[in-house]
Design goal:
alpha/beta; 2 domains; 6-stranded parallel beta sheet
Length: about 400
């Protein structure tokens, strides 16, 4: 067996400017890839401050780049360093490029942002392209409303990257739910690069159950707001339904999120301590275990939560956020139309009786498994298949580069 066959490398970039979504999606992919490919190592570039809290399989590692967060007004700021955003971005770009140069991956998967956060992977993409690395843009099922996405991509000059830099565009969803590039003027040569993989399935890890489950003696609804940075509205709305005289049929377990402001989290905990049927945790890296044991789910509807709901076959009430993007609203609306989940749109009033009624109706919903959508949860199977095929393309490309012959992609 040659060295190229015995040692494969994939580099994954996750900008992680807000919440946990990008990191968790990349982690699921990395763990599955090394599990299915014994000759593969995966390195994740991430700005998440809590990446070390997660469980990575052998042959998956990460490089932590300085963190930048996205504020609710859409602006970015350095997470913890007392330097300005431009300096932080320059540091991140330098670390990314040096890591890529040293790691020398066969495949580079960029999560969501074609040029990276504020263009920080642009030079790395050009360098790896010249080396024969296979460049993949990985997109979640929904990016944003087309009326907002189109001007954003024009401003960022995204189309040239899709046409000349990237070899593939992998959409981690199914077209029956949504086309993330709908409404955009995408040329035919870019459309040919697009592959829908299906959603990335999840399973509960075979580890000790989270300690909080020992306190949940009766059936419960899991209330989760992802990272929690903007989860105060949903948490308050659901909590008020449990504070009233008429209460939902199930007990509740709230996951407040590691990025919820400390004072907000403390206020919620004070209210929860007064309620006999409600418990809370700040964060658990094994969210799949909490969801697997739940009877139902209430959530904001980010990509990872949606994948977990489908995988664990849970009745779910999704209350999507609409700022700074319409991503969650679009996903929830399309999934509800398909009959996979229930939706409650924030009307600004947030009457506790409205929430109580929605929670009571949860038991009447279909489970996701009762809706047949071909390929819905085939994401990891197809990801591994695509990666193996692309390794062959890389080998051919690099061999022809070595001999000076022109490479023609299949």
């Amino acid at each position: 067996m040659s060295e190229s066959e015995s040692a494969r490398r994939i580099l994954i970039y996750s900008h992680d400017s807000f919440g946990l979504g990008h990191l968790r999606r990349c982690m699921v992919m990395a763990n599955s890839l090394v599990e299915q490919n014994s000759n593969l190592s995966v390195l994740i570039l991430s700005g998440s401050p809590i990446i070390g809290s997660f469980d990575f399989k052998s042959r998956v590692d990460f490089v932590r780049i300085p963190g930048i967060i996205k504020l609710r007004n859409g602006e970015y700021t350095s997470l913890s360093l007392h330097i300005n955003t431009e300096q932080t971005l320059a540091m991140r770009a330098s670390i990314i490029q040096h890591t890529a140069e040293t790691f020398d991956p066969d495949i580079f998967i960029v999560d969501k942002e074609p040029y990276g956060l504020k263009g920080e992977v642009t030079e790395t993409l050009a360098m790896l392209k010249a080396r024969g690395t296979h460049l993949v843009l990985g997109l979640r099922d929904v990016l944003d409303d087309p009326s907002l996405l189109a001007p954003e991509w024009r401003r960022k000059n995204v189309l040239p990257a899709l046409e000349t830099l990237y070899d593939d565009i992998w959409v981690f969803g199914v077209k029956q739910i949504y086309n993330p590039l709908a409404g955009l003027d995408i040329p035919a040569n870019v459309k040919r690069k697009i592959t829908y993989t299906g959603y990335l399935p999840r399973s509960a890890p075979s580890v000790t159950d989270p300690a909080i489950l020992g306190e949940m003696k009766d059936p419960y609804v899991l209330v989760t707001v992802g990272g929690g940075g903007d989860g105060d509205v949903l948490t308050d709305w659901v909590l008020r339904a449990y504070e009233g005289n008429r209460q939902p049929p199930l007990n509740a377990l709230f996951v407040l999120g590691p990025f919820m402001p400390p004072e907000t989290r403390a206020s919620f905990r004070e209210r929860i301590q007064k309620l006999r049927r409600v418990r809370a945790v700040t964060f658990d890296s094994h969210m799949e275990s909490l969801m697997q044991e739940a009877s139902a789910v209430v959530a904001m509807g980010g990509y990872n939560t949606f994948c977990e709901v489908l995988s664990m076959n849970k009745r779910a009430l999704i209350i999507p956020r609409t700022v700074p993007r319409l991503e969650q609203y679009i996903r929830a609306s399309r999934a509800a139309e398909a009959g996979l989940i229930g939706v409650l749109v924030d009307d600004g009033v947030r009457d506790s009786n409205t929430m109580l009624t929605a929670l009571r109706h949860l038991s009447q919903q279909k489970k996701p498994s009762e809706v047949v959508i071909p390929g819905l949860l085939d994401g990891l199977v197809n990801l591994n298949r695509l990666v193996r095929l692309r390794f062959r393309v890389v080998d051919k490309r690099r061999a022809e580069q070595d001999t000076g012959e022109a490479f023609v992609s299949d």
